[in-house]
Amino acid sequence: MDIDGTAEAIRTMEVRGAAKIATVAAGALRDLAAGWEGDDVGTLREELGRAGRTLLDTRPTAVSLRNAIAAVLKDMETCPDATALKELVESNADVFISRSEQAKGLIGRMCAGRIRDGSTVMTICNSTMAIAGILEAHRQGKSIRVLAAESRPRRQGYITARTLAEAGVDVTLIVDSAVRYHMAKTDVAVVGADAIASNGAVINKIGTSQLALAAHEARVPLIVCAESYKFSPLTMGGELVEIEMRDPAEVVDPGEFPGVKISNPVFDATPPEYIDVIVTELGVIPPGAAYEIIVQQFGYGALSEVE
Amino acid sequence: MDIDGTAEAIRTMEVRGAAKIATVAAGALRDLAAGWEGDDVGTLREELGRAGRTLLDTRPTAVSLRNAIAAVLKDMETCPDATALKELVESNADVFISRSEQAKGLIGRMCAGRIRDGSTVMTICNSTMAIAGILEAHRQGKSIRVLAAESRPRRQGYITARTLAEAGVDVTLIVDSAVRYHMAKTDVAVVGADAIASNGAVINKIGTSQLALAAHEARVPLIVCAESYKFSPLTMGGELVEIEMRDPAEVVDPGEFPGVKISNPVFDATPPEYIDVIVTELGVIPPGAAYEIIVQQFGYGALSEVE
Amino acid sequence: MDIDGTAEAIRTMEVRGAAKIATVAAGALRDLAAGWEGDDVGTLREELGRAGRTLLDTRPTAVSLRNAIAAVLKDMETCPDATALKELVESNADVFISRSEQAKGLIGRMCAGRIRDGSTVMTICNSTMAIAGILEAHRQGKSIRVLAAESRPRRQGYITARTLAEAGVDVTLIVDSAVRYHMAKTDVAVVGADAIASNGAVINKIGTSQLALAAHEARVPLIVCAESYKFSPLTMGGELVEIEMRDPAEVVDPGEFPGVKISNPVFDATPPEYIDVIVTELGVIPPGAAYEIIVQQFGYGALSEVE
Amino acid sequence: MDIDGTAEAIRTMEVRGAAKIATVAAGALRDLAAGWEGDDVGTLREELGRAGRTLLDTRPTAVSLRNAIAAVLKDMETCPDATALKELVESNADVFISRSEQAKGLIGRMCAGRIRDGSTVMTICNSTMAIAGILEAHRQGKSIRVLAAESRPRRQGYITARTLAEAGVDVTLIVDSAVRYHMAKTDVAVVGADAIASNGAVINKIGTSQLALAAHEARVPLIVCAESYKFSPLTMGGELVEIEMRDPAEVVDPGEFPGVKISNPVFDATPPEYIDVIVTELGVIPPGAAYEIIVQQFGYGALSEVE
Amino acid sequence: MDIDGTAEAIRTMEVRGAAKIATVAAGALRDLAAGWEGDDVGTLREELGRAGRTLLDTRPTAVSLRNAIAAVLKDMETCPDATALKELVESNADVFISRSEQAKGLIGRMCAGRIRDGSTVMTICNSTMAIAGILEAHRQGKSIRVLAAESRPRRQGYITARTLAEAGVDVTLIVDSAVRYHMAKTDVAVVGADAIASNGAVINKIGTSQLALAAHEARVPLIVCAESYKFSPLTMGGELVEIEMRDPAEVVDPGEFPGVKISNPVFDATPPEYIDVIVTELGVIPPGAAYEIIVQQFGYGALSEVE
Amino acid sequence: MDIDGTAEAIRTMEVRGAAKIATVAAGALRDLAAGWEGDDVGTLREELGRAGRTLLDTRPTAVSLRNAIAAVLKDMETCPDATALKELVESNADVFISRSEQAKGLIGRMCAGRIRDGSTVMTICNSTMAIAGILEAHRQGKSIRVLAAESRPRRQGYITARTLAEAGVDVTLIVDSAVRYHMAKTDVAVVGADAIASNGAVINKIGTSQLALAAHEARVPLIVCAESYKFSPLTMGGELVEIEMRDPAEVVDPGEFPGVKISNPVFDATPPEYIDVIVTELGVIPPGAAYEIIVQQFGYGALSEVE
User: Fold this and answer.
1) Which residues contact residue E261 at a Cβ distance below 8 angstroms, ignoring those fewer than 6 apart?
2) Residue from D219, D220, D276 to probe the interface with F (highest F Cβ count within 10 Å)
3) Which residues of F are catalytic?
4) Residue F305 pLDDT grade (very low, low, confident, very high; cuts 50, 70, 90)
């Protein structure tokens, strides 16, 4: 798909979901490079930069989109000629897409490796990667029991509970306020991530940080499952991940609560000291290695936006 | 009202609410003693004992009912004759009823004393005593802001939010999973209690203990508001407060979740180390004074049931 | 038995064990008072005081002996005449002895009340009271599993393991260094006490405080089982419980370790913040109620020795 | 001295210092009762009440003054006639004064009992009771080393350092910002108190709570030394101890800092969980026994002011 | 400037301040290389090594000086000939100097990114980098309030308070002992660093570690601002950063304190678990990335001194 | 030695000890490559792969063996021809062997650098690297005192105590249950490692994690000494380090304990937050740098086994 078509598809949400957006955008940039016929490296570089900005403008706060574009255009300035640049961009895009496609399987297997037979596992919200780990542990024949927190306001925990039950996993639905109560009988907690800051803090669905706190209090290890493109290079440059406030109507009908304010933060930040490991397709890492993952993927160019 | 009528009214829930049940039962015992016309102290003692058991059987797990009966019949064995016994029971009942009636005002004023002007106050569920404290602080002209947690599954936080808003208090409703997020900007937390164990642990609506944990993590003091008849003498004798499991249908319609279990604990236990003070009508106490409150009210007779 | 005979029996260890020593000494003082035939209250008081010192001198650091004597001679100065004094001492002694005899049963039942069906229970050393609680839980039909720490250097854990196995309890012996490893799967820890200080600190067999620390780290409640005469009034007067250093030969044969020092502390102190409850025959109390237990039993006379 | 003369002497600071004020006021009330010649108990009661208020108005926030008056007038309403009331007040006053006079010696000896030979002791500000404990340990021949924190802004630590040095104690002066640095080599910390709340929180010179935090972090026990009249009955009734803000000029000359605000809080509150013991003349207690000390001294009348 | 002149200027403190010393030394080495006219790479290498040692000897404990020399002479042994070596040294020096010059702006902007509008910010001592962050946040129009700790003994906090006030920032001066008191109303803490060890521990002005502890206790994030040349390669080789003891006369006039010792440590070490992020010109990193920063800048040559 | 002979020597335990096994295996692979005479790179690669598997099969859970083979065969696929491959393998092997040989000296010196003069040092089990650090500190003339924990069940602490005593070090033997008791007077703890996971958790002799917990509670830094080949690349791929259960007869004679189970875990896992530094021959690192050490040594090939 060409750049404009891709941008339109992302903007209209025809293409949606962090992983999907990222790979489609990477593919569009690769196609642009692959189809380029000019000789001048400067022109191609400019064109690719413009295309990147066009794509980014469709969803400027989506970490996976931003990272996909950065990964594909990485090291662009080192290419002496257009041929080298075309090759670089194609190679970068192929690596990015292929790694994304393999991430779920890899992360699932690594996460499953850390869930022992006979364990009670707690999770929250509906994370594809966390569920991949749980399902893989089940597939390996481990006897596990899962506690799925409801995840108010939007109750994504319902999807998780149904998905696991359909796969034959022993799953129990609990309300978010019962997380600490059930932690006393939990062996391991597994969650996903929306973004990971350069200091290893994990931004995820509201409620994750208090689950993490209760796990820490009870010496229950917390596993975060996240593809490497969830790591946010902007935080390396000093940006704080802003916690989005969503529509109060997701919580209750405001009309029924005259005079009552309603606050609806969608994410919270879990500090690194409550996290045992982050499972990425690049391996099982301590939260403190977040900086290294960012540098390794994006180089110090991640800093350029603040210079 | 006579004993049987009172028992019936409690059983049919015509009389309900911890405070109401306790004072009505105390009144019935007093009436029985006051109207007694026999001379034999032994017979009266037996009769009162029987009446106490009749009342207790209507709601055997209600701490306030049990305590009301125990308070009225306290020291019964020390009376040499029927007249003395009648006087004792009447006096015990009057003290108990009068203290109960004053408790809300006293606790409200003491709790308000600990809420500073300009504070953000977090609360959970719908505790009469906690709300009394908040409203009194508001009435005193303090500028306060309240965060009311929803309190799934039954959402008693809605009642709290509406009650406070109607009284002109600045109140914001939040979901239970956002408790830790908002704790960073909270100055003090205020909750009620269903029962207090002899070691100072507080049994209250599910979610209280994780609110307490998040408060402790952020150096936010937690105030528990509770009448002295919420202290459980049975725990002094080794009984654990059992956490009641309620109907899963309070959480979701189980029919929509085939293969999914649903766990619905209604209370949890907050450990004493997360509690700054317990405000009772007997004063502001540390959680560790729970044992003393029980002994002072019930004596060591509280132990007799295990002997 | 008369005072001198009793003193001799204690000194020669014919009478041994904290409970035995205490009740025998109380009985000897009662016998002295009961058999007294003089009229002068002052003379009897002096005689009783002398008898108390004679008994105390046999084992001056035994908390239970000291407390038995104090309990029997309590309030002696309030008696106007010899008859009243005789009655007081007899009554004090009877109360003390009867309470001691009932303590094991009471503490066992109260402790068992706090062990849930299906629990894994960790214990250390060989505490009569802790074992009473575990056996009572077993007798009540609860399915429990016990982890018994070896308790180097003298390995009293072996006795515990054998006692429990003989009673049909599922028991596993572990080395002391594996306490934290096994704590991850433990639900409750139960230990005894040699002495309890007025601030609630528990002096018990070496290793108890690190078991308590590991329990606290993993949110596992720690139950201390102790008769009320284990509470040390001397600590209320500022004395520190001295940790006795025993013979290095209990650890290894020093001759085989030329140039190596060997340290063999027999007790350690567990701070109150790691203790969930202390179970005494006076009820289940928070560690902070230790001061009250001492005052209630010994009055402020406990302070007189430092004045 | 008569009431008006005493009030004047307190107001003009001719009489100053917590202990001095308290005993002088108690003496004036005793003298009033002792010299009373009327028969009517009601009139004497009114007169004593008026005298109490006159004295209290001179320094309404001085805890020791308020407590002295309350202790002397305790149980006044129980006296059937003027003679009984006179006797009660005289007796109350004598007990209060005598206990105050003995407190320093008692507290010093009890505190010294908890300082082991060879210890490094940290202290802050200039507490008579804490210094009494340190000097007594020195007098007992224990080899100790003291670290005295400067205690900005008024540097009362200088007095402490000089007092100890003059007594031959090995003392080292440190700045307040070096407290945590030196805590690594400290064995025990000893501080005084200005007031103690009913939940065991200790109000003392600014800097105490961060010394307590650093001690807790390093497993160094913290001893608070305080006479029993430092316990605040008003806090039992819900009052918060207000932290006084003093003149900025105590910190720096504001004229030299144009545009800079200066905050000068004189006290801070140390939470009970950072305190090992409170040493009072009534014994060594856990902070959680503060409520009991207040009730025992003032009864529930301590609550009457909020009713 | 030539090597000897530069060394003299550093020794005489004509050139002072960590940043200034580092860039001047780097410039001197570059000038030496640039002006070299010989052909033999070995000779030049020796000469540069000698020059490095001359410069280092002027201030052997200054981390920035040591690091500047190491950065400029990095990879010297890989150069096959004198031309390559000259180019390498010039390039290394230019990179080092340019990065130093940009560090303040970069760090200021990144730090400001982490200070939210409406925040109360606490700082200690007088750190150029921390102040850069605070001023940048102010310049961006954020409404902030700053608490500046006095920083005894030398009171560098006065300079901070004046600097911020002159720039129009709302700043309040507090004594060091009031840090924990004010932490309850603080949103973020920002400090500088004198040196950073390879495990992420931060060596900074005495008092920093207790500020960090109080921040951690209250869930207040701590930001450390430091140029990358503050990271100490020697610690990677096992050296402990020695805490310098300065002249007691900085604290008080010893003559006025006969018999009193005075301890004046100038720095303390903040453990990594109390640090949220370290802001360097290479990005916002977790403290655990300190090792990586050192390896990346100095390679494993940092270890050579211990081999 | 050829591959088969080497494998046999490892299998029969003629060659034993983590370091010895690793270097002998590396030498065998080097000899195979060095002696290879064929031209075809593919054949040599296959042959080396086969040899690696043969060696690995002798002790599949030995981390050092696995790592030695991986280090020697690293980057094998990048070699265009047999000559390059031979050179690579020889070079890899030489680097690995030489680094291993130097590790003990390097680690000893770095560890000693972190032990201050006058310190009390606690250790457990019998770690060559930890002892190297302690002996080096002693050799440097530092006055140190060592506490050696017995290390039940096999009591390797006896060897440590004897080794240190023979070298003239002041050493005291303690039982494992006395670790927390003695921690109050300990300045630094030093232990070895059997394996280190990618998140920085240290697997070491049972008892290490509770020593670490007690050190953390008392603010005593914990140093882990470990060669870089102790870091486990398999954990980067999601494997949990399995804790081996050894023969119960190591603990007691099961025949003497009828009906008693015996659990004998040989290792436990110390979480990274209780570790101050890991001292490796690559430098002093924070535990969070474990991931980086693994990637740097083994590359992402460490992940290939899960792909």
Assistant:
1) D170, D171, D172, D173, E248
2) D219
3) 125, 194
4) very low
